[in-house]
Amino acid sequence: MPSVSVSTSTGKTRFQYTISTPSSASAERIEPELPTLLFFHCFAVHNVFHPQFSDQALRKFNLVSFDLRWHGETSSQEEAAEDAIAFINALQLPPCHFIAIDLGSTIALQVAVKKPEQVLSLFIMSHICLDEVPDVLEGRTEMYEIYISDLPNAHVDIAVAFIQYAFSNSMSNLALALRDSCMPIDLENWSPKHREEYRLISYEIFRSRKALPIEALSRISCPVKLIHGGGSIVYSSCYTEAFMKDLQKAGVDVSMEIIPVAPHYLCVDYAEVLNP
């Protein structure tokens, strides 16, 4: 997998990334005459967009993904939106269509606010762009405390809780395979010697996030599509509806769709519904 080194206000980091084009599943560069889709992945499952990169209809375009800090082979300290902009600049990407889910939604949204000319459209699944829901924050706190407790099999307990969070206890063979391929890397990235990094990426970024003010959202100049998984046990549709109302107040062209029964990480098993 290729990588690129970038420098931001928080220091240097190297991002692993994938470029897929119609002629190559792992290309060195995009095909400039084609539209480019830039993907922002979720927490813990950095390869969550495998079904999209395997879709022949989407493979007609440039598909670009990169590992967020402390995911996959990307590591260092955090300023996620600044990281993404630095990555975009390093690869000299043209204005793109952004595809984001879960943790990636906050980063994609920040880029759309900070650099609206870079974003042609925003397709956001299972957003977490508002203040954290108290009950969900309580669960995140409990999971974080268990993980750092050094109790025997703590990581197993967290894995079970995470499956509930991401897949609502219903995992397909593909979801299991993606989880199994990510888990060894996640455990290495978030080992006891990297507890500060784990705190930041698994807990602090969720605990401290705040909804962007209407004034900031008004800078978004592209259409936004929000997708909610009707089977999510984490967030209700009201959470997505509230975000849509904020975007509407800001004058953003926004629409929303609910995929019945779909879990929080819905792009894995509902790709046929989601992919154009």
Polypeptide structure, described:
- Mean pLDDT is 89; it is low at 72-78.
- By secondary structure, the protein is of the alpha/beta class.
- The chain contains 10 helices and 8 strands.
- β5, α3 (103-114) and β6 (119-127) form a beta-alpha-beta unit.
- It has helices spanning 50-53, 80-91, 103-114, 134-147, 154-167, 173-189, 195-207, 214-217, 237-249, 271-274; strands at 3-8, 11-20, 36-40, 62-66, 96-102, 119-127, 224-229, 254-259.
- α4 (134-147) runs antiparallel to α7 (195-207).
- Helices cover 39% and strands 20% of the residues.
- The protein has 2 domains: 3-131 and 211-274, Rossmann fold (3-Layer(aba) Sandwich), CATH 3.40.50; 134-206.
- An 8-stranded mixed β-sheet has the order 1-2-4-3-5-6-7-8.
The biggest sheet, with number of strands, parallel, antiparallel or mixed sense and barrel status, is:
8 strands, mixed
Strand fraction? 15-25%
Structural class by helix and strand composition: alpha/beta
Integer-rounded radius of gyration: 18 Å
Question: What is the 3D form?
Answer: globular
* Mean pLDDT metric: 89
Uncertain segments are 72-78
CATH homologous superfamily descriptor of the largest domain: Alpha/Beta hydrolase fold, catalytic domain
Query: Would you state the CATH class of the largest domain?
Result: Alpha Beta
Architecture of the largest domain, according to CATH?
3-Layer(aba) Sandwich
CATH overall fold name of the largest domain: Rossmann fold
How many domains make up the 3D coordinates? 2
Organism: Lentinula raphanica
GO molecular function: hydrolase activity
Domain AB hydrolase-1: 35-135
Pfam families: Abhydrolase_1
